[in-house]
Write a sequence for this structure.
């Protein structure tokens, strides 16, 4: 394995250039001296050095295109290449967001149709495509709930948001950002929301309930209809965290189950790539009652005799915009392409195969590792525990790191918080039986290694560009940049 | 369980702070069990001197790489001194939780609260339960 | 086409291992009345068919290869070198998740570390995070950070009226549950003194933009005076920047900004109808624990070799939950990598040249337009690449004419956001506009001055 890659500053050499620019073809104007900076500490590199640097860096990175990436709750499915071609069409990349709508009717049509498809798939009445990510969609949805309840229904005393103990961290964080208070509800022995505990908190201070379903244990809540009914009866609204929507495409519509508003992660369910952490896109879908509160503008359509015309429309009681412009359009193009290629039947097959793959892998893994809710049928993911009998010192972390040596990306670790030593595994529908078999076999061999040569796990990975990194040092003595000449 | 250090010259809160009284001043830190549970401490945030606190208020923060915990005031009163060197030496919390790694001193407004804290045996039981 | 590899035989074998007869049996937890609903969606298409449809949709748009663009207002047409798309098309980068497993994510981590480093260099700030969603959300997050620095005790925010209108609206949306008192948006335009006077002991921050939404450049001296006014009341000084302007302009770190935010789209991304963009977010190191968003830090591995990790993540939602500094999780990592490639490709001389070319061309255009009867250059102030022109007719009418007759995308209609700027157009010129295009715009305006909009033309008087 090659050693550390120098930084871009370390390969910089004074006077090198990696660009060309047009000549100045107009007279120069004076730039007043007082505005001019005295230094600009950017690197100076030739194009060849630049390209080699970033290509070498890319070789130190794992992606879905290199192998199995079973991160629970992240839906690391294959990213179709046609999506990338579609999003790079000049008619999509080279249009300005503030152009006259008459000059961008194609782009607005795509957005309008995507709004319609997402509403149809989830059963809701209206869609905004503006949020840039799942958490951004959560903030949007919770602010909409807050405004409907506080202003629309005139109940400003409702400030509590109930969140299960299995929830993603974004749910409580979003609640606080919205100026509301979090109340955590425990799960029952079967991994559902504990309804008896829920009932204790259902009073007239409740604004709503945020629920991921299937939840982060990979389980469909067995009392969901009762739960949504109870929350509504208490005057609250149901927020759906759409992170796990991949399990439900064509299987059920969240609106039919009693959800009032939910976000959708186009970068999970609808095959757009995760980009090493982003960009994503987090559209929000909602009921008729909440639709006037959507951030805007959204795309609407005017019917004329011989054609339709797409327009921007601000919902009547909008919470306001949640970012500049209209949303992550490039991501929308990819999701649109995916939905059009799959159609209704294809989407249902996605969910069926995602759930089939997860149950198959769960059946294999539970022979070797504890799967606390393995007595139930899981949905698109399941949670095992990184505990190996006869190797008590080995932790989930060690197993995860050893998986790297077998060519797999580790599963999500130590989440959900309610399962000790959690390894949360989501295979997605785009993995073959052979891949799942190989992964299960690797986990078996690792369990054996844990008993016979635990050091191999404790010091893993051995086959990665770097060994385990010192995160304590990084946090105690943060070094967050390296610019020669700057302290 | 038996690996943790417990000192009987001070009292404890169920949230794992210790308090040691000198006159009307209580010195506060976190227990050896708490620092073990956190693992390598990377950051400590202390309150401002002069802050009035009530028993149970979150007044400081202690962080490892993967966790952040509030440190609660075990007693009511005024923060009269903080351990200025601690934020620059967070590893002291792991090395010497009962000594060098004290967090702050409270001038007690209600010294009777001290007697309501757990004695060392009662605190051992709390830790024992959390371990299971 | 569903991208599902398994065959029916393989599926049957898997079902046997699970111990159920058919796939439908895996869904018994889903309430029966709501199971397997029909979906009303168009029929599935082949790759050839969908690409043909998408091309039609794309070609229905007037794209910047076919029209001359003088529209800016927060989204800019700057040159994007070929290397940028080449690098972010590496699927090791774009098909990766957030680098939570550092041993197999050194590529993304080091690229983001270099992005952070170059943003610090550009802004002269201590720390930069690895991105927010865009300039608007970065501005909102900066306000919330200032609020948290003051432990939520100070609830007043001074917001300049010439911060991008969409950014201001986003600040209002984000903070609607926080009980803030946001003042300043009705202050006179470009009156920094009036803004300074609004800062008091309850103020957690003041937000200004430089160059501002109308293109005005404020000098380091003017900005430093405002910083001092803020700091006299212990309020944070937040500056919204155009990163391209920093090719030659004095960086906000040099006039004592506490937080610097901005839209990073110009750094290697095309306008692409508004997103994905890049929220630049940089700040002084004493505020790092109150900051939001991911940070990549340098460390060493078990053998002492240099490596990179996500660090200080106890601020983030996955650890701190309801006490996190923000709910942000997914960010704009790939766009940040594009910006890193762009900044490295342009380097210190290239970025300066982009800024200078934009400046000279914008000033040439402004001077030519100022000579036309009926068109007034309102930008009597120092400006960068955008300037305001009073037009002899409503901006919408002028823009319709420019597009229909000249193939030109005209400027932004300022009357949408500023009632005092009726018939005022914000024009943007970058290195992508050649002299021929600028001269065509001038010619078109001359035609308008000569009555090209026919009888509907209303000349501006006084």
């Amino acid at each position: 394995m090659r050693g550390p890659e120098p930084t871009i500053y370390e390969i910089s050499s004074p006077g090198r250039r990696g660009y060309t620019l047009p000549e100045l073809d107009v007279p120069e104007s004076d730039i007043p001296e007082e505005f001019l900076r005295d230094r600009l500490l950017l690197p100076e590199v030739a194009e060849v050095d630049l390209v080699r640097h970033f290509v070498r860096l890319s070789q130190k990175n794992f992606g879905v295109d290199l192998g199995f990436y079973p991160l629970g709750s992240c839906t690391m499915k294959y990213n179709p290449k046609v999506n990338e071609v579609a999003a790079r069409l000049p008619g999509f990349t080279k249009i300005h967001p503030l152009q006259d709508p008459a000059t961008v009717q194609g782009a607005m049509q795509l957005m309008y149709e995507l709004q319609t498809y997402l509403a149809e798939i989830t059963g809701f009445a209206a869609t905004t495509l503006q949020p840039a990510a799942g958490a951004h969609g959560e903030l949007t949805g919770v602010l909409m709930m807050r405004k409907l309840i506080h202003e629309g229904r005139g109940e400003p005393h409702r400030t509590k948001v109930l969140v299960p103990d299995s929830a993603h961290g974004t749910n409580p964080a979003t609640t606080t950002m919205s100026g509301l208070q979090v109340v955590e509800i425990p799960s029952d022995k079967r991994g559902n929301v504990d309804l008896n505990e829920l009932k204790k908190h259902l009073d007239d201070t409740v604004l709503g309930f945020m629920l991921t379903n299937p939840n982060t244990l990979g389980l469909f809540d067995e009392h969901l209809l009762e739960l949504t009914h109870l929350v509504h009866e208490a005057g609250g609204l149901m927020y759906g965290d759409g992170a796990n929507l991949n399990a439900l495409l064509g299987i059920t519509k969240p609106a039919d189950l009693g959800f009032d508003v939910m976000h959708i992660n186009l970068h999970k369910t609808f095959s757009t790539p995760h980009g090493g952490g982003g960009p994503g896109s987090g559209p929000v879908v909602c009921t008729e009652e909440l639709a006037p509160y959507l951030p805007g503008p959204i795309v609407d359509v005017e019917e004329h005799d011989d054609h339709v015309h797409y327009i921007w429309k601000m919902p009547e009681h909008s919470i306001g915009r949640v970012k500049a412009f209209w949303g992550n359009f490039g991501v929308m193009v990819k999701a649109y392409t995916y939905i059009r290629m799959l159609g209704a039947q294809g989407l249902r097959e996605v969910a069926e195969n995602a759930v089939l793959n997860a149950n198959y892998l769960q059946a294999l893994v539970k022979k070797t590792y504890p799967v606390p809710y393995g007595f139930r049928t899981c949905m698109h993911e399941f949670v095992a525990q990184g505990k190996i009998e006869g190797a008590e010192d080995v932790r989930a972390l060690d197993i995860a790191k050893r998986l790297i040596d077998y060519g797999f990306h580790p599963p999500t670790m130590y989440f959900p918080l309610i399962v000790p030593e959690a390894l949360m595994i989501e295979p997605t529908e785009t993995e073959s039986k052979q891949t799942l078999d190989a992964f299960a076999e690797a986990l078996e061999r690792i369990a054996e290694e844990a008993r016979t040569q635990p050091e191999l796990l404790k010091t893993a990975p051995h086959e990665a560009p770097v060994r385990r990194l010192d995160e304590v040092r990084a946090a105690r003595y943060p070094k967050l940049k390296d610019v020669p000449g700057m302290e | 369980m038996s690996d943790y250090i417990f000192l009987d010259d001070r009292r404890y809160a169920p949230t794992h702070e210790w308090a040691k009284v000198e006159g009307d001043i209580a010195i506060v830190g976190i227990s050896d069990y708490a620092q073990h549970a956190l693992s390598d401490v990377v950051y400590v945030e202390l309150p401002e001197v002069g802050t009035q606190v009530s028993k149970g208020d979150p007044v400081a923060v202690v962080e490892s790489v993967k966790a952040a915990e509030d440190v609660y005031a075990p007693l009511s009163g005024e923060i009269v001194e903080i351990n200025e060197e601690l934020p620059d030496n967070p590893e002291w919390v792991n090395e010497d939780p009962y000594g060098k790694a004290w967090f702050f001193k409270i001038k007690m407004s209600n010294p009777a609260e001290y007697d309501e804290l757990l004695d060392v045996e009662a605190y051992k039981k709390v830790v024992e339960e959390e371990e299971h | 086409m569903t991208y599902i590899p398994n065959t029916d035989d393989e599926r049957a074998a898997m079902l046997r291992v699970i111990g159920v007869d058919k796939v439908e049996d895996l869904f018994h937890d889903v309430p029966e009345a709501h199971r397997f609903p029909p979906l009303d969606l168009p029929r599935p298409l082949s790759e050839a068919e969908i690409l043909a449809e998408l091309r039609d949709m794309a070609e229905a748009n007037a794209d910047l290869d076919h029209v001359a663009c003088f529209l800016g207002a927060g989204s800019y047409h700057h040159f994007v070198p070929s290397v940028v798309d080449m690098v972010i098309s590496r699927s090791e980068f774009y098909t990766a998740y957030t680098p939570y497993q550092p041993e197999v994510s050194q590529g993304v981590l080091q690229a983001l570390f270099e992005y952070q480093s170059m943003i610090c260099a550009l802004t002269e700030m201590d720390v930069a995070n690895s991105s927010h969603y865009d300039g608007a959300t970065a501005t909102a997050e900066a306000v919330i950070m200032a609020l948290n620095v003051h432990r939520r005790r100070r609830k007043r925010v001074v917001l300049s009226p010439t911060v991008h209108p969409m950014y201001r609206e986003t600040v209002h949306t984000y903070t609607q549950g926080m009980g803030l008192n946001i003042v300043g948006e009705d202050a006179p335009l470009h009156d920094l003194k009036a803004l300074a006077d609004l800062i008091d002991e309850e103020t957690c921050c003041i937000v200004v933009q430089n160059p501002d939404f109308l293109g005005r450049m404020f000098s380091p001296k003017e900005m430093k005076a405002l910083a001092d006014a803020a700091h006299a009341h212990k309020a944070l000084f937040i500056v919204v920047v155009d990163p391209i302007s920093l090719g030659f302009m004095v960086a906000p770190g040099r006039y004592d900004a506490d937080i610097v935010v901005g839209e990073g789209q110009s750094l290697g991304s095309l306008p692409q109808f508004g997103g994905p963009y890049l929220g630049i977010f940089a700040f002084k190191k004493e505020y790092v624990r109150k900051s939001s968003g991911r940070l990549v830090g340098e460390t060493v591995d078990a053998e002492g070799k240099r490596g990179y990790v996500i660090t200080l993540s106890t601020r983030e939602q996955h650890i701190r939950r309801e006490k996190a500094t923000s709910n942000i999780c997914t960010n704009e990592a790939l766009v940040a990598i594009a910006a890193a490639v762009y900044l490295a490709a342009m380097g210190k001389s290239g970025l300066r040249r982009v800024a200078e070319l934009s400046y000279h061309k914008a000033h040439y255009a402004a001077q030519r337009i100022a000579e036309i009867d009926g068109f007034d250059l309102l930008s009597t102030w120092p400006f960068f690449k955008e300037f305001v022109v009073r037009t002899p007719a409503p901006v919408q009418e002028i823009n319709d004419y420019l597009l229909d007759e000249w193939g030109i995308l005209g400027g932004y209609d300022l009357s949408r956001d500023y009632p005092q700027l009726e018939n005022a157009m914000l024009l943007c010129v970058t290195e992508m506009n050649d002299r021929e295009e600028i001269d065509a715009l001038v010619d078109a305006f001359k035609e308008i001055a000569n009555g090209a909009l026919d009888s509907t033309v209303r000349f501006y008087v006084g």
User: Anything to note?
Assistant: The radius of gyration of chain A is 25 Å.
